[in-house]
Specification:
With about 550 residues, the protein is of the alpha+beta class. Helix content is about 40%, strand content about 10%. Helix 8 packs antiparallel against helix 9 (about 360-375). Residues about 30-35, about 320-325 and about 525-540 have low confidence and may be disordered.
Length: about 550
């Protein structure tokens, strides 16, 4: 018979197979457990026998801790330079000044010529800029669309998720009604702060398939002291989807780390504890250095009186010697050239806290490396440390750029693109953009909604060498000029090309040389051909 370990309830059994192929459970007292082949799952090894985490689903593992994780993440960003720098570095490289729209429609499917497609895209980009660059796109008119991108992404990094409500509200003199209202994560919660249920988790209402149906939003932040005392709580039920168009009414921005996950986790969640402990260690080292700078001195005496003949005995008058003038009795301090008498048996001891600590920097960098691994950010990028070598700095930059590009793609797909599609639907409905069949066929609508979202470039360490590599990639056909331009500074090659043509024309009209152009070669004068020899009358040998 063959033994195979298994667990039923809280008891361990040994499954034994008999000769006829059937299995039977033997044991149940917890002894005789064979288990599998993974030592990490062993319950008998000393190293793992006390490691018994609960096997819960995504919401059970995260939702009870969300409020505390958000609060601690925000506090770390406010008060710990390393935590704040990690969030700010990520936001700057992913979003920068904002992801710009570049419409890329499927002209072949829509039956457009290249010129017609270009004209449509230029017009759509111009219309979108009218809405996106105006603060009217925001419900509270605080930021334009590009500022909202940065705020939404930062909120997701700090708090775990953010909600973008897309109400319709008219503004006098402005053609578009679509607005964006960013809702902080804390405001989406169960009505009356009730318990979760299978169809309502942390303010997210779901259907039987697990898809979001609505979001329950508190009208004010639960931590706002103006409402905590004496105010009644009011929740609004925001439907997730528009029943007529199928477009989103609310965009819930968060990273899915597990299936059936209802809410997002702050970026700093895996490293909050080491960040806090490292912050305390830095504070203690800094305090020790500050105390050492005070140069403390202690007087050691046999009778524990201290300071010898400079202080009077208990209930007595000061004892003055020739070495201590009366003026200095009440002004005892360290100074330059002071001479102070001490009583027999007294000696001076200086405080020496042994700072600066020579082991501080290696230990600090070791912990920062581990934190960087947890955040997917190389420690060179995390603390702006580029002193190792050119190769190390370049490798760190390339590694970090993979992380930043993945987050940018995620932000474009889950925030910019859904909002752009809602805006485009309104623009077509208003007749400001011509898109035949947009509402009749989902495939036609998809063809019109194609877009790229360009952000800041990764930068270069060696401009000359990397520019030559860029030129070689284009020459080999590995990339295009459009792709290289986007990777370099996040702009469009077509827009730059039209600008270059205009600049070239202006320079030619002004008679100025074109930078980088090769000088025209002087064509030698045409020599009239004759049969006469040209070497002074002598024929060539």
């Amino acid at each position: 018979m063959t033994g195979l370990g298994c667990k039923i309830g809280r008891q361990y059994y040994r499954m034994e197979r008999s000769a006829d192929g059937s299995f039977s459970a033997v044991g149940g007292s917890g002894t005789g457990y064979y288990g599998g082949s993974y030592q990490g799952a062993s319950v008998t090894r000393r190293e793992t026998n006390t490691w018994n985490p609960a096997a819960t689903d995504a919401d059970s593992a995260s939702v009870p801790d969300l409020a505390r994780l958000r609060a601690r993440s925000r506090d770390a960003v406010r008060n710990q330079p390393l935590a704040g720098g990690a969030i700010s570095t990520t936001v700057t490289n992913v979003v920068g000044s904002g992801l710009s729209l570049q419409p890329t429609i499927d002209a072949d499917y829509l039956g457009m010529t290249p010129d017609q497609a270009d004209a449509w895209q230029v017009h759509t980009e111009r219309e979108f800029a009218l809405w996106a660059e105006s603060r009217h796109c925001s419900l509270n008119r605080g930021l334009n669309f590009f500022g909202l991108q940065e705020l939404a992404f930062r909120s997701t990094m700090e708090n775990g998720d953010v909600f973008s409500n897309l109400p319709q509200k008219a503004v006098p003199g402005f053609p578009y009604r679509t607005r964006i209202q960013l809702i902080e994560a804390d405001r989406v919660c169960n009505p009356n702060f009730g318990f979760d249920s299978p169809n309502l988790v942390a303010g997210v209402e779901k259907d039987d398939d697990g898809a979001p149906v609505a979001y329950h939003c508190l009208r004010q932040h639960p931590g706002n002291w103006l409402y905590v005392t004496g105010k009644s709580w009011t929740w609004d039920r925001l439907t997730a989807w528009n029943p007529r168009t199928g477009l989103p009414n609310v965009v819930h921005l968060y990273r899915h780390l597990r299936t059936d996950q209802s809410r997002g986790l702050p970026m700093l969640s895996p490293v909050i504890e080491p960040l806090k402990m490292l912050g305390r260690y830095q504070e203690h080292v800094l305090m020790a250095a500050a105390v050492a700078a005070l140069f403390s001195v202690f007087i050691k005496t046999q009778g524990a009186q201290g300071l010898g003949n400079m202080l009077p005995p208990v209930g007595g008058a000061p004892v003055v010697t020739s070495a201590i003038p009366q003026a200095t009795i009440n002004d005892i301090r360290l100074g330059s050239g002071n001479i102070i008498d001490l009583q027999p048996g007294e000696e001076v001891a200086f405080a020496d806290p042994k700072v600066p600590n020579s082991n501080f920097d290696p230990f600090f960098l070791a912990i920062v490396r581990q934190i960087g691994v947890g955040l997917e950010i190389p420690f060179e990028i995390l603390i702006k440390h580029y002193t190792a070598s050119y190769s190390a700095a370049r490798a760190a930059m390339l590694d970090a750029w993979k992380f930043f590009l993945s987050r940018r793609t995620w932000l474009a797909d889950n925030f910019c693109q859904p909002i752009y599609e809602v805006w485009l639907a309104e623009a077509v409905a208003l007749g400001r953009i011509a898109a035949p069949g947009f509402f009749a066929d989902p495939l036609i609508r998809k063809a019109y909604c194609g877009a790229l979202w360009n952000g800041p470039g990764k930068g270069m360490i060696n401009e000359k060498e990397e520019s030559l590599a860029m030129e070689k990639r284009i020459e080999l056909g590995v990339t295009t000029a459009e792709e290289e331009t986007q990777a370099y500074n996040g702009t469009s090659w077509a827009a730059k090309q039209s600008r270059r043509i205009k600049e070239r024309k202006m320079r030619d009209e002004a008679g100025l040389p074109v930078p980088g152009a090769q000088p025209r070669e002087t064509i030698p004068a045409q020599v009239e051909h004759t049969d006469a020899p040209t070497d002074g009358g002598k024929e060539a040998a």
